[in-house]
Amino acid sequence: MENADELDCIVIGGGPAGLTAALYLARFERRFVVIDKGEPRAALIPESHNVPFFAQGVGGVEMLRRARDHAETYGARILSGEATTLAMKGDGFAVGFRHRDGEETLRARFVLLASGVVDIPPRLADADAAVLSGLVRYCPICDGYEAKGKRVGVIGRGACGLGEAKFIASTWSAEVTLLSLDEPLVPERAEQSTLAEHDVDFVPIPIRTLVRVGDGIEALGYDGAVHRFDIVYSAIGCDYRSGLAKALGAAVNEAGALKVAAHAETTVPGLYAAGDVTEGLNQIVVGMGQAARAATHIHNRL
Ligand SMILES: Cc1cc2nc3c(=O)[nH]c(=O)nc-3n(C[C@H](O)[C@H](O)[C@H](O)COP(=O)(O)OP(=O)(O)OC[C@H]3O[C@@H](n4cnc5c(N)ncnc54)[C@H](O)[C@@H]3O)c2cc1C
């Protein structure tokens, strides 16, 4: 690559957020690269029905292919590899870039982190295959509509599981059961009222594992009980890939999500973030909107 000191921006991550930033930066005719490790959460989407312009639905892999092709039409350079380090250097940043031919350091005036999150899978053999077939899901905002009339299990721990079960029961399904992985489920009085109010069943004995059986999912309890569902939502949580920004002192919330201001700048000047890695709603259109704002702000500052 030519003199990396001259880059305007390095985008870390080539999911929906990073590719949107790439499209904008390319059309602004900026000098930038996208570094992508190639494990986008979006690739696990069997078919999304809440992305505008795709009324018939669109699979995650197809959506990513289109976004990448679109950005590359305008000359975006998307490099395969991992951003391993991020440091402030002069007026800008230095990014350690590991790729199949070795390691190098790239420099840019601005960095946009669009590295996403990794869902913590429920205990299930080949969890990704179950996700791709829609039996295990992570996000009722994304696909709760497609759970209408189904028997839904929600497996989680603490308030997260309860909140998700309530959300699904109050919006889409009359048959929702709350389950807990490894730990007994002992709702407090207020939680019991919430469960009763929304007609959510719960299983007090902890679940040992999930298994895929035919076109459903079975949750196996430590007591030998078998609970069968059409769909299981996993509300166990996710890991925010915010480590590079945190190492520079960027502010995060208690879950590890990056805090960003109006133009998607983190608390580290010049370091922007977009998509799931930021605090807020983990949705494609949200990440794309943040990326558009960040890219435009970066362009204007340059
Ligand atoms: C099963 C499922 C269904 C979903 N359905 C929908 C839906 O219908 N509608 C909707 O709006 N949302 C849906 N989502 C959520 C959606 O996938 C995310 O909101 C979206 O993918 C976030 O985009 P992103 O670009 O922030 O992150 P990602 O898509 O996760 O992309 C991040 C990229 O950054 C790369 N990366 C991370 N760290 C580094 C590094 N250090 N160096 C280089 N690269 C790095 C990763 O490998 C990855 O390629 C769904 C999610 C799942 C799991």
Number of helices: 8
| CATH uppermost class of the largest domain | Alpha Beta
Low-confidence runs: none
Give the tally of β-strands: 17
- Structural class by sheet pairing and helices: alpha/beta
Largest sheet geometry: 7 strands, mixed
Described by the principal axes of the CA atoms, the overall outline is: elongated
Strand portion: 25-35%
Mean pLDDT reading: 95
Number of domains: 2
| CATH architecture heading of the largest domain | 3-Layer(bba) Sandwich
Distance between the termini: 21 Å
Task: Work out the helicity level.
Answer: 25-40%
In short:
This protein has 302 residues and is an alpha/beta fold. 27% of the residues lie in helices and 30% in strands. The chain has two domains: 4-118 and 237-301, FAD/NAD(P)-binding domain (3-Layer(bba) Sandwich); 121-235, FAD/NAD(P)-binding domain, CATH 3.50.50.
